[in-house]
Amino acid sequence: MIQGSTIHDGGRAAKISTWWDGIGDPFAWRAGHGSGADDSAGQAVDACVACYHQCRECCYASLMREGDDSRAIERWLDCAALCMTSAMLIARGSDLAAAAATLCVRACDRCLDEMDHLSDCPWDDCIAACNKAAAGCREFAAASQQF
User: Alpha carbon of 11 to those of 16, 25, 29, 87, 105: distances in Å?
Assistant: First the structure.
């Protein structure tokens, strides 16, 4: 964990440090730090964070089941990781945000494809979250015109 950064950047490091310390909403400070596509950025961040949580829940649920869902677990973990990475980069207005969002769309699509093969368990919440995150990231990347 990062404890008290010494970087002098107008307070941005302190805000990031707050996230690392687990205090408050890590994306509450995102307003004004977007790429000019603030509406799509906020929607993409919210959708990505929700998808991150849903994919992790699917992993946990799958581990409690019998059967081999190892490929699905891999897809959920990839999707969760890329959703959170995209959310963080979009939230702080990184010049890599659009590229991460484009990659996040790919991870969400792969996750959705894999869930199509898991007919014996309900994954409706995760499917909805992946669809929303992919749509939000597509819109953000298009609005930022950086991909």
Answer: 9, 16, 11, 20, 31
Query: How do residues 33-81 score in pLDDT, each as one tens digit?
Result: 444 456 889 999 999 999 999 999 988 888 887 777 888 899 999 999 9
Residue 83 in contact with residue 51, Cβ under 8 Å?
Answer: yes
Query: Distance between CA atoms of 63 and 72, rounded to whole angstroms?
Result: 11
Alpha carbons 9 and 5: distance in angstroms, whole number:
10
- In the Cβ-directed half-sphere of 91, how many Cα atoms lie within 13 Å? 21
Residue type, 14: A
Distance CA 92, CA 106 (A): 22
The residue type found at 62 is: S
Query: How many helices and strands (H and E) does the chain possess?
Result: 5, 0
Can you give the pLDDT at residue 119?
Answer: 63
Q: Per-residue pLDDT averaged across 83-93, rounded?
A: 96
Burial (CB count <10 Å: 0-12, 13-18, 19+), residue 55: buried
User: What is the predicted pLDDT for the residue at 33?
Assistant: 44
* Full set of structural domains in the chain with CATH: 1-30 (no CATH), 36-144 (1.20.1270.360)
